[in-house]
Specification:
By secondary structure, the protein is of the alpha/beta class. It contains eleven helices and 13 strands.
């Protein structure tokens, strides 16, 4: 495959396997003081990385799939940190452009008695300058899944055009378009976001949405109401936190799988982990019950870990639970497993 002559876009490594999943969106540097320490009093700040779409790609890579992350970063130390972090998770980064004219986005956490506030510094970021050309690279051809979220269209007019291009023009014609609604109220209020997110979701093939955000956006009270609101997708997956998740196919009866119990250490990134697990199940040809279970099992690892990306048990562990009878699944408590995974970061891989 010929390399792209533009210096700001790395070429596809020679001999790389074809991409199975392409995820598109912004990943930022995260700055966080010590737990419970207000930002204004902090003397030391921890640096990490967070981004919904690259999180999904990371979980897919950990489950043995070829995933690439499509984005832009600034030509700055934060941009290099982001790319290195995503690549370390096993995700291909050869479709990330380095933009010399815009900075890498970042957000800062501010812990307090009422919870953790978040301050974004992403206006005018390199990723906010993405446009429809982001999906034109020949190395993306043949991808089986294109995954994006409702965060991207909130970043800028060109990013909204990119999201609309992905779901309408289908620049990757062989790919199932997966869309996580992922509404961020800090980026745009409900009255602006609701019609845009509904339109993008309805033109996608697969939609992930939380029951709580569907209610906030569209006043839908249950999974069937969400399905009626979104008749276009082949499949809608409605997540209801610790209760469980429901898959609603266009021509099939709804399938509900309860969530296993887990002690929550940090909820950040659990939705991305669920999407990564579910998509891995879809790529492996699992039936609805098993792919919902896989989503729950991967999300449990995220819930029991600090940070956006959790290590995963070996695939043999997943297989045993995917095939468990319903009466063994329902009382499942994964607290011990998530604790072991967090203690042993090397316990990750297919």
């Amino acid at each position: 495959m010929p390399s792209d002559p533009r210096p700001d876009r790395p070429s596809v490594p020679t001999g790389s396997p074809p991409v199975e999943v392409a995820t598109v969106g912004e990943t930022m540097v995260v700055l966080c003081p010590a737990p419970g320490e207000p930002l204004e009093d902090a003397e030391r700040i921890a640096v990490s990385v967070g981004g919904a779409e690259s999180n999904v790609a990371g979980y897919l890579a950990r489950l043995g799939h070829q995933a690439t992350w499509v984005s832009r970063v600034g030509d700055d130390p934060f941009g290099r940190t982001v790319v290195r972090h995503v690549a370390t998770a096993g995700v291909r980064v050869d479709h990330v452009r380095v933009d010399p004219a815009a900075p890498t986005g970042l957000y800062v956490k501010d812990p307090g008695p009422a919870g953790t506030a978040v301050h974004y510094y992403r206006a005018g970021s390199a990723a906010s300058r993405m446009d429809t050309a982001a999906l034109a690279h020949p190395g993306l051809a043949g991808a089986r899944v294109l995954h994006l979220s409702g965060i991207t269209p909130a970043l800028s007019a060109s990013c909204r055009a990119l999201a609309e291009h992905a779901v309408t023009d289908r620049p990757l014609p062989d790919a199932l378009v997966s869309f996580d609604v992922n509404h961020r109220a800090r980026l745009w209020p409900v009255e602006r976001a609701a019609p845009v997110l509904r339109d993008l979701a309805d033109r996608s093939d697969l939609v992930f949405v939380g029951q709580d955000e569907a209610y906030a956006l569209w006043d839908t009270a249950d999974p069937m109401a969400v399905r009626r609101l979104l008749p276009g997708p082949r499949t809608v997956v409605v997540k209801d936190g610790a209760v469980g998740a429901t898959e609603l196919g266009r021509d099939a009866a709804p399938v509900f799988v309860p969530a296993p119990r887990v002690t929550v250490v940090e909820p950040v990134g659990a939705g991305d982990a669920f999407a990564g697990g579910y998509l891995a199940g879809l790529l492996r040809g699992l039936d609805p019950t098993r792919r919902l279970r896989l989503g729950h099992l991967v999300a449990a690892q995220a819930l029991g870990s600090i940070g956006d990306n959790a290590s995963l048990p070996p695939w043999s562990w997943f297989e045993g639970l995917l095939d468990a009878p319903d009466d063994a699944w329902s009382p499942l408590d994964l607290t011990a497993t998530t604790q072991q995974t967090s203690r042993d970061p090397g316990w990750s891989g297919p």
